[in-house]
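REQUEST FORM: STRUCTURE PREDICTION
Request ID: SP-0412
Submitted by: Lab K.M.
Chain count: 1
Length (residues): 204
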Amino acid sequence: MPATVAEPIYPASSADHARKRWTRAEVKALENTGVLAGQHLELIAGELLNKTGKNRPRVNAATSLRLWMERVFGAEFVAWEAPIEVGSSDQSLSEPEPDLVALKPDADPFSLTTPIPSELALVVQVSDSSLTLDLTIKAQLYARAGITEYWVLDVNARLLIVHREPEAGRYRSVTSYNDQEQVEPLAASGLAFQVGSAFPPFHS
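STATUS: Completed
RESULT:
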């Protein structure tokens, strides 16, 4: 049975004052010098995060979810690890690259501009070691942007955590579904995702 959960509070670090907070402009300048060549980095709240090192269970789960999203939303409307825009107050310090996004039908999937929140039907993160970040800082970032639906697929716990109703920088509805349950996205009523399909079956 789906379980309503509360968003955890991200603990403040005592070392925050010593960290360099990067801006998008600074990161772009670094990229132009070639210093970041070969690195897959994501800018979140002024921090550059390394996105490499995907293990096989995470890749399999992401592939299963991607194939389902392409059937539901259309392959041309689904993007993998592509940047999205966030709210205006966060744009200078954040340029997230969710694992998967689905665009709304009226959005142009071949536009040369980065999708804005109002064009996004669904944003998805497939999580193992990044679960705390995905459930806290990223969830708050997307809620402030007004992104209507954000899913976190927890590979280790075999759960799908669905965030809806963004308001005042938080999602008012956060519900956890286990691998025996299914979820219909708000933008595709009647087309359910079977949570267990993202995970290997248990063996006795």
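NOTES: The chain has one domain: 53-198.
Reviewed by: T.R.
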